[in-house]
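Teaching note: in complex prediction, the entire set of molecules is handled at once rather than each chain in isolation. The prompt given to students was simply: 'Predict the structure of this complex.' The entities are:
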Amino acid sequence: MECLAGLILRQGRARRGQGEDDQETRAGALIGGSLRVPFARAAACRASARAAAAYAGASVVLALADQLRAALALIALDGVAARIVLVPAGEAAAHLGAIVTAAGAGHVIEDWMLPGEDEAAALPAPAACQTEWVLLTSGTTGVPKLVVHTLQTLSAHVAAQHGPDRTQHRTKNRTQHIWGTFYDTRRYGGLQVLLRALIQGQALVLPGAAMTLPAFVTHAAAHGVTHLVGTPSHYRQLLMSGLAGRLRPDYVRLSGEIADQAILNRLRRCFPHAEIVHAFASTEAGLAFQVSDGRAGLPVDYATVLVPRVEAEIRGQDLRIRSPLNALGYLDRTRSPVAAEDGFVETGDLLNLQDGRYHFAGRRSGQVNIGGRKVHPEEVEAVLYEHPAVDICAVWARRNPITGAVVAADIMCRPDIQRRIDSRELLVCDLVEDIQSFCRTRLQAHKIPVSISFVRSLDLSRSGKLARLHA
Amino acid sequence: MSVRDTVLRVIDDVARTNGRRLPPLTDDLPLLDSGLDSLCLAVIVANLEDTLGIDPFSSAEDGALPETVGALVGLYEGALV
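The expected output is the structure of the full assembly:
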């Protein structure tokens, strides 16, 4: 059993042994704002940081605003703490109490010290325990579900490559990758790039706390980022920022949302020489597909784009995944497993075969993906039902060219309200505004219905639940 | 109301309901540095589709994405000609 700090140092030594990289200062560092922390120092920090001892065997919640400091805490605590819950920026405020309770956490860490300049690269102690890494994913009630991984389930495919990746994305004269992530490194897709950079000794440029996208692009360009990671929505913003020309990536990776053909084409035109890859991963199922042919969706022969050791099955429309990257279970559901009895995880994603290609067609649950942030219709519907005008409602994903989707709601009003609308006593636009401001005090901004339609009837399926027609 | 006025009014409305203060909406104002985030822009585009009946982002699938207020207005004006 090896902890993250040990893995970083061992891989670093292996590379130096190969004479590959003796410029420690150029390679393998976390860069956030004006800070640059070499991995070796970050990893050694585990041995020397007395603070880590305070968390031995503990359950801790990492709720840091700053991603670089959160990464340092992760490196220090893997193999020390029994459980680490990773809270992305923006999630802490609303649900921290519920997360702490569900995780049985004794500590909430909101800041982390930087390693001293003179801290020597000592070997970290062997891992004292197998740390659970807990990631958040959206739940139907609004409180996030807690998904249990380990360093192994999160990085098996990276570690399996033994040292620096010599087969992929080695282009032109650049051998040193400098990753830049739009994606929060506490979410699955961002955490993938953090672990890849740490284990393979590559530089990673992180957004500072509350940094806007244009500010991050300037920051990434100044550090010569060669490998970019983000959601399709991040890239749409990049292309609208007027700053895309400052970046010269060799590799552009999209994940976290469905990549449509338009964004793939636009990126191809903007970065004609870059390798453009869209990946499919979910917090529960892990990374599964990586597609680099420039086309949306999956080829019919989808086994050709599977990550090694991952199995996929399309049963009807439903995508199922079995792999060493699958999560172990849910922490807050009496540890219910994420996989079915046959070991496959139901991803909940639906695929349609169309023109010789499998295309993602939304979620079985009707879940809405807004620029990589997931919303369950049930959560929004529960709030709408508190509004005095609402009789029956259905929330669905409306396509949007900026964020992929936005929340839309169909509402059947209570009869007295409907009569007031019919007699023009109540204006529809006023009621829409009233319902939206009602939601604004109860839901995060991306969960508020952008468009509301008042309808005379709503389709109810046989079970009595609303049929999710728009998924 | 002209297409330009409609687009500018919708930008103003969305900024106001989201508590954003915008500088004067000149043609060369960058969309993303104006105080609007991507969610605001998504709402603006959805509201404009409801008001004007078109989504020029989807109809011009491979066209360049607008970077400024002027380019956004131009996108809608061009689509309605």
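Point out the following to students. Residues 162-174 of chain A have pLDDT under 50 and may be disordered. The longest helix of chain A spans residues 4-17.
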